[in-house]
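Much of what follows relies on a compact textual record of a protein's fold. Think of the row as the fold of the chain written in a discrete alphabet. An example makes this concrete, so a full record is given next.


***
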Amino acid sequence: MATYQELTDPDDPRLADYVSLRDTQLRKSVEAANGFYIAEGHKIIRRAIESGHHPRSVVLAPRWIEGLRDVLDPIDVPVHVVTEALAEQVTGFHVHRGALAAIERPTGHDDLAALLHQVQWGAGPRSRIAVLEDLVDHSNVGAAFRSAVALGVDALVVTPRCADPWYRRSIKVSMGAVFQVPWVRADPWPSGITQLKEAGYFVAGMSLGEGSISLDELVAQDHSRLVMIFGNEGHGLTPATDALIDARVTIPMMGGIDSLNVAASSAVAFYATR
């Protein structure tokens, strides 16, 4: 059963997981070393728990207690009840949703072969996988996950240098989509492309490079197993990846615009190939 405790001291060691949430570098090291991630907002906390993730603690403003009792009460977790002013003092920003949770990081997000087996068993003869290569912006990662779930992509792969899907900002922007779709971090990369090809996937890289086909042409080819790779926000696909893909694909545009933000381009590609 959950235990509810009112805390009033910002230096209380029970709040240590929530200190300085806006310090990205600090949070990366603290959360990775201690095996947890931060979920922000009552909806995200609910989705995480309903997905089978276990919180090690929860911080709530009083107004959110009743709305989360049904998912918190059945599990063994300390719930720290604090004022919103105290939450802001601890975290370093205004927690306007009044709810945070430190949740144990799930394991098993490092096996590309297992992911492919899961997708091919669950999706049948047709499937789509998206690869996020070296994206550095957590918001872009979260947005891509949200679009992938909304538009029926079967799985995602992130590369070793890609921003962390379990980072608070990624989870928040994804609206919990990171809990809903299978994904792995493929390391080493880009050798994972060979695994994808051997599993029968046509590998398309979203690119403005020479010899690109249009997204419309890719759709017309009607590949039953399709991988779409989206490159870094500033540099696009790495040369090593570009050398291994089956086709470069570009989104036809007008008005003198030659590219879209990666979050927007992934949504367009997911919709076009659905």
In short: Residues 138-150 form the longest helix (13 residues). The mean pLDDT is 93. The chain has two domains: 3-104, 112-272. The chain has eleven helices and twelve strands.
